[in-house]
Amino acid sequence: MQKVIVSVINDLVTDQRVNKVCNTISEQGFLVLLVGRKLKTSLPMDKRTYATHRMKLLFTKGFLFYAEYNIRLFFFLLFQKADVYHANDLDTLLPNFLVCKFKRKELVYDSHEYFCFVPELVNRKMVQKTWLKIEQWIFPKLKYVFTVNESIAQAYEKHYGIKPVVLRNVPSLKNFENIPFRSRSQLSLPENKAIILLQGAGININRGAEEALQAMLYIEDALLLIIGGGDVIDKLKGITAKFNLQEKVVFKNKMPFTELIQHTRCADVGITLDKADNPNYELSLPNKLFDYIHSQIPVLSSPLIEIKKIYSRYNVGELIDNHNPEHIADKLRFMIQNEQMQLVWRQNTLLASREYNWENESIKLKEIYNKFK
Questions:
Q1: Given CA atoms 19, 22, 27, 33 in this order, what sign does their dihedral have?
Q2: C-alpha to C-alpha distance for 299 and 232, rounded to whole angstroms
Q3: Mean pLDDT of 340-353
Q4: C-alpha span between 236 and 215 (Å, rounded)
Q5: When comparing pLDDT for 14 and 103, which is higher?
Q6: Residue from 216, 253, 251, 209 nearest 232 by CA
Q7: Is residue 153 over pLDDT 80?
Q8: How far is CA 228 from CA 25, 204, 206, 250, 356, in A?
Q9: First-to-last CA distance in the chain?
């Protein structure tokens, strides 16, 4: 059997896109090895249909972290036999590219975001310039490229003359059907309050989390449930304490996907409020949007380009006009209290999930990997 090594810089447990890709490649008859990193806070690896390898690093952030991971990944790939190397995001591309050149093997690149224009890099010009130089050197030489939506694909095509194949990060219908139901009481969630859910592995700056939390000052009989991690979590906890919102806001750490969806299904409204104040977010299509849709809960969203495309096809909730906390609160109250529209939105999420699912999207991934057989 031919072997594929898939590499990603983040922890492996909660990355659902990479897990779906690995499962699909494995189902195509390839041996798959997924390589990533392990943190002190990493959850134990769940059972997978493919092999995994997690590296413990000395450094956890900054230049030394990226340098250490890329060097170690290069030597790991160099001494592993494989027929195809599958790099996820720019921060794993360089070692994969060099090894493929040396071994004359196939390289697949999957860009999960508009990497060089994430907010963490936009204001760090020297760091951004370094990543851009790597991208500008390698991208025009790539043959097989995926990305997560049409807007980012068009942006890459404009820069490099290569249009990636769009492979949206949407859930699998089969996986959702196999997740057992758990009630609010079983999950220790209140049964007498509306639940507003913000979930994600990257609850970071410029994603509207602070404003969503402050909106709870203007909402009664509701709970804001925040599940996940990110660089603003500590700030959000500080805001909660400052405004005495402990009775209205609950934080839960990152959790396995099955458990996350069990919580998501119990919500009345899901929120995704990324701000279009940097190119990456402006062009993004948040994964949580589809988790909400497949869980059949209405969504309050910011009017990003790709989100508006979804809403134009399926009315699955409301769009905000701005990030003023009082405006967000008005929208949330309308969504919670309007029982007739709740029925419409939930029915439309069911229709949308029949179009936006991994069974449909993965056809494009299979077409590429069939070329390697």
A1: negative
A2: 22
A3: 97
A4: 12
A5: 103
A6: 209
A7: yes
A8: 28, 11, 16, 11, 23
A9: 9
